[in-house]
Amino acid sequence: MNGNPVLYDHPGPRAKVRNAILTVVFGGLILALLYWIYRKFDEKGQFTKVLWEPFTQGAVWKNFIFPGIEGTLKAAATAMVFALAFGLIFSVGRLSEHRWISVPAGVVVEFFRAVPLLLMIFFISFGVPFLIHQPVPPFWSVVIGLTLYNGSVLAEAFRAGIRAVPSGQSEAAYAVGMRKSAVMQHILVPQAARAMLPVIVSQLVVLLKDTALGYIVSYPELLQLGVNVVAANYFNVIQAAIVAAVLYIVVNFALTGLANYLDRRTQRRGIKTRPIDPGAAMGGAGGGF
Length: 289
Prior knowledge:
This protein has 289 residues and is mainly alpha-helical. It contains 13 helices and no strands. The longest helix is centred in the N-terminal third of the chain and has 37 residues, at 58-94. The relative contact order is 0.12.
């Protein structure tokens, strides 16, 4: 095979010419669309110096944009850790052979996947205080909402990755006496995590962007401070939104680049698992989940 995909045929001379022509045509259409947008904005005076001048002032970046980026990254990083843990735990729960574990885990995952994230954040911030008789800080309203929704999506990704591991590997492990918990920990989960890395990274990028929904509870993230507050002070909502969009793109590209770097390192070194203690690993397939 020489490493080539089985179902992929390299394009011939005609296909290469056709692809090149289509690339040029679509590239030209995109440039034309961008120029049309530029002209329309320019006709409305959206590129005048006075509207963009606030972003040349250090005070705007210090008081609004940098704190907004910090708030976004803080909420995203916290929610990423919790969502990954939530997804891993509930994916394993859904794969349990015990229905008293798998059924409730499935109900939780399906429920939080179905509820819109914005509604979830709103309810945590304004509904939960009636239950606990104290307010929920905006930070935790955003983090909990992001964790429940994205963790449920990641749970399905992990479950699909675990099911995709060839069954022969787990059968061989059971044959030598490993418990199911050891098989999950040392064989299935590491391979599933690596196989599903692109999906996991994509969902984490979505999670980072979804921190913008924190504006509904006045959480001071990039959309709230960098767009709403800046526009309220300088009357330049379009310019503030463009700057915020560029910053979101930069942060997401950095996250994706970091994930690609980790993936390349994993491919070079292979998946390294901790040595298995034979005494702990043995004990039959009946243990664990």
